[in-house]
Write a structure and sequence with these properties.
- This protein is of the alpha+beta class.
- The protein has helices spanning about 1-20, 20-55, 85-155; strands at about 65-70, 80-85, 170, 175, 180.
- Strands 3-4-5 form a 3-stranded antiparallel beta sheet, with no helix packed on it.
- It is elongated, with a radius of gyration of 40 Å.
């Protein structure tokens, strides 16, 4: 029984790993890790110098003293209670830049590409629907012509429903096509 349980657990784990969501997630994590370096380079190479032109070179240097005296002692430890709002601002800017780069370089182009594919698919289906509707209209016209011919023949050869006649009628109390009682047509 334990051998059977091991096989089912391993089979379930294998099925879990092979599901599309897990593979997609793994790819996203790898790409995200590689993408982090790009975003950090943009922040350090472009955003920080722009901010440095206005204030300090690093946003991490922006602090506020909540309880003084604030500073750094001889060991390098902080004295007092500092609020490191520059670090929070740096993290928020990094997040916004990451989101903007992902959206404009990955999500938006992919959405446009998928929309074009969907538009092409709908155009192909529209052509197929038009052809099907046209065929249906032609079949309806043929049916109407056949009914008109039968009605014309019924007027020349007698009343509909008479024995031996291929017309509509009521034979023996059953509705349907003459010669085929109860067929409903």
């Amino acid at each position: 029984m334990s051998e059977q349980k091991k096989e089912s657990v391993l089979a379930g784990f294998k099925a879990f790993l092979m599901r599309g969501n897990v593979v997609d997630l793994a790819v996203a994590v790898v790409i995200g890790a590689a993408f982090t370096n790009i975003v950090n380079s943009v922040v350090k190479g472009i955003i920080s110098p722009v901010v440095g032109a206005v204030g300090t070179k690093s946003l991490d240097g922006y602090t506020s003293c909540l309880k003084g005296p604030c500073g750094i002692d001889a060991k390098g430890d902080a004295i007092g209670v500092n609020i490191l709002w520059g670090s929070v601002l740096n993290a928020a800017l990094t997040f916004l830049i990451t989101a903007a780069v992902v959206y404009f370089l990955m999500v938006l182009p992919m959405a446009k590409y998928l929309a074009r594919l969907e538009q092409r698919r709908r155009a192909r289906e529209g052509v197929q629907e038009t052809v099907e509707i046209t065929e249906l209209a032609v079949l309806k016209e043929i049916r109407d012509e056949l009914v008109a011919q039968r009605a014309h023949q019924n007027g020349q050869y007698g009343q509909p429903g008479q024995s031996g006649h291929a017309g509509y009628g009521n034979q023996g109390g059953q509705g349907g096509y003459s010669g085929h009682p109860g067929s409903g047509y």
